[in-house]
Amino acid sequence: MLRVHFLALSVLFLFSSIPLIGQDSPAPEYVRVLMYDGTSRMGELLGNNEDEIRLETEQLGVIRIPKYLVKGLSTIQAKEYEQLIAAFEGREMSLNPQSSRYFFAPSGIQLRAGEGYFQSNIALNSVSLGVTDNITIGGLLSFAGAGGSLKIGKQLNENTYASFGGIGFMDYYGELDRPIGLIFANMTWGTEDRNITVNLGTGTKIESGIGEFHAYTTDSTEYDWNPGQYYYTFTVTEYDQNWVRPLLVNISGMNRISENRWFITENYWVQNLRYTTRITGANLVYSYLPSNNQFNPQNDGFAILSMGIRNLSTRNGWLWDYGMVGVLGGDFGFAAPWVSATLAF
Fold first, then answer.
1. How far apart are CA 280 and CA 344, in angstroms?
2. E strand or H helix at 14, and its extent?
């Protein structure tokens, strides 16, 4: 009887040591680790304790990252991780800390929740913060005025992103009658390190002078201007108001060319949409009747072309953008350097 019990226990132990058919092993968890210097690493998460994070990376094998260097950690979907492996083509997998923008234009890629950056090129300073993975807010400050920005977007599939938003700006000196703004929508194709973006946008309409006069009266009193010269006072009561509204198309791209360096190009075509509205009941007084302000077709459109390099300093985490910008119009053109510094936080 004892032998029967022993045999039964042996068989039970043997079967308990064999994995159940159909039982799945835990799926690997892929993460992105963001450091305080602005760099980041990604790989399969092997361990996470009070002292360090252990990752299985594609090129470096198992690495240990001390916790005091780590700013944050976020999960990456398995398909996105596979896509990034293919995009890096054997290079060390350190992600782009500034894939959400080019020199200035936004991409469809969002900042993750809690990520942010400060950017300055002296004339214009800005700060942006990821409120959630889909919402980014920002502020603008320059010597001429201040404003804010909003971008809402999401990843549509493994290599397509989309966003929309706007930028508002008001000057300090009252030269603008009201705040001006720009709204945009865009699509980005590619990865965080190699992508292209198409932006479409339009801005606030701006007065562009007075057009044709339709009704006016003349003061019959002659005023002596110079000896032998006289003028009358004219009161305009009906006229055309000219307006201009910009429509812009932006095509931008970036490509990683080394571990800490990216090539960037950012290009715009701006078309001024012009139209008029009839103003009646006005009471505009002129000492002389000015000639009608006709639209100049040479100023209807212009292009902005730029290209340059973004360099990441691994010593302090600052990103430096260096480039050249050219502006071309129908009757004008000039070029200027672009330099800006960015610090992720």
1. 54
2. helix 2-16
